[in-house]
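Query structure, 408 tokens:
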């Protein structure tokens, strides 16, 4: 929607010999285009109070939605040196039917939009010309594609294998037919994301299913013939008992399964992202993250479950970036040039020099006032897709499933 307009306007004004600022001003008139130069953040004692605009630019900038039928999203350059080797990718849909509170993808790409079966099959035919070993379907909610069985059958008829990212457990529970379809499609490892063994917090996140349901689903995956089940877990949750619940859940799974070698656990830390339902949640401390990592990995080793995980240092840099503003952004070129972008000590020195507590500021920097990303509105008012943050992270907030909260 926007990029073709940007290129057209840019080419038009450049051909007229317009200055750089004149081109920027022309671009700022395109709906959905944000030109930072025309928005000046106003701080008061570290609190972002307002954005002063110039040249009549809109505030906030409203995101735009593309018609997915107008273009293809698939692999256009096929090479064995790509990250997904010998695999061609095809996008089925964007957005997600679910609203997991931590997920940036479902918020950024909402509303949930589907491509037509005709377009999807056309894209598959084009990528098959390269003779890839596998075809990967891209989307936050691929099982939500109405013609998913037809697409898998079409791929099977071509003799190519299917590959997918993490799948929604609620869509697979009680659906042995769908699991068998995925297995016949050539999927060897299935990836699921229970996130935690703490049922009430899982429901708070929006993931769904009880522990018994998850165990039944995972064991059914083994029964239908998947070689391995990969499980995503989240550390840094706002409940000290959650990590023990995670290990207890996995211990039950190991007792019921043929062998712990049939599982692979991958973990990451809860980093509240802008524009999500948890953007106002206070992250746990860095020390807590490190301790949880040690406890979790020790438990996995005892159960002989293979695992991979995120470095707490790298995740903390991600947290700083997720909640950063222009003041911090000014230091990015310096960090990139010195190859210190992922250096936590470098980021801490910068925060300290700015008068921001290097340990506490990243946890919840914008307690009042605006947020740096308030300049962009992802959700159109009145379209039925709006979100409410009110009360979500207040101390008294409780879910119907339990007494979990994201504490301020």
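Result returned for the query:
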């Amino acid at each position: 929607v926007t990029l073709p307009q940007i290129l057209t306007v840019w080419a038009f004004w450049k051909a007229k010999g317009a200055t750089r600022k004149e081109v920027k001003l022309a671009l700022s008139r395109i709906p959905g285009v944000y030109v930072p130069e025309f928005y000046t953040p106003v701080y008061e004692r570290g609190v972002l109070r307002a954005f002063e605009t110039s040249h009549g630019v809109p505030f906030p900038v409203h995101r735009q939605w593309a018609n997915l039928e107008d273009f293809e999203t698939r692999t256009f350059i096929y090479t064995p040196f790509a990250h997904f080797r010998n695999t061609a990718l095809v996008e089925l849909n964007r957005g997600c039917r679910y609203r997991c509170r931590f997920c940036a993808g479902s918020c950024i790409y909402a509303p949930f939009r589907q491509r037509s079966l005709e377009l999807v099959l056309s894209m598959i035919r084009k990528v098959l010309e390269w003779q890839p070993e596998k075809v990967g379907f891209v989307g936050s909610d691929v099982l939500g594609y109405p013609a998913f069985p037809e697409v898998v059958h079409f791929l099977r008829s071509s003799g190519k294998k299917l590959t997918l990212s993490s799948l929604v457990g609620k869509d697979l529970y009680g659906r042995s037919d769908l699991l068998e379809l995925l297995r016949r499609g050539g999927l060897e490892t299935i990836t699921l994301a229970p996130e935690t063994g703490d049922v009430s917090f899982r429901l708070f996140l929006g993931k769904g299913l009880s522990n018994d349901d998850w165990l039944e689903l995972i064991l059914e995956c083994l029964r239908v013939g998947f070689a391995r089940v990969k499980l995503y877990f989240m550390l840094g949750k706002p409940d000290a008992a959650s990590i023990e619940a995670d290990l207890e859940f996995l211990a039950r799974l190991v007792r019921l399964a043929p062998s712990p070698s049939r599982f692979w656990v991958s973990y990451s830390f809860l980093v509240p992202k802008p524009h999500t339902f948890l953007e106002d949640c206070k992250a746990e401390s860095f020390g807590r993250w490190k301790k949880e990592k040690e406890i979790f990995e020790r438990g996995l080793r005892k159960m002989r479950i293979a695992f991979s995980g995120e470095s707490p240092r790298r995740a903390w840099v991600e947290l700083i970036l997720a909640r950063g503003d222009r003041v911090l952004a000014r230091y990015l070129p310096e960090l990139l040039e010195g190859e210190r972008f992922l250096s936590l000590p470098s980021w801490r020195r910068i925060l300290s020099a700015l008068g921001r507590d290097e340990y506490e500021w990243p946890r919840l920097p914008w307690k009042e006032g605006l947020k740096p990303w308030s300049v962009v509105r992802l959700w159109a008012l009145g379209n039925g897709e709006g979100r409410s943050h009110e009360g979500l992270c207040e101390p008294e907030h409780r879910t119907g499933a339990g007494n979990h909260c994201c504490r301020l």
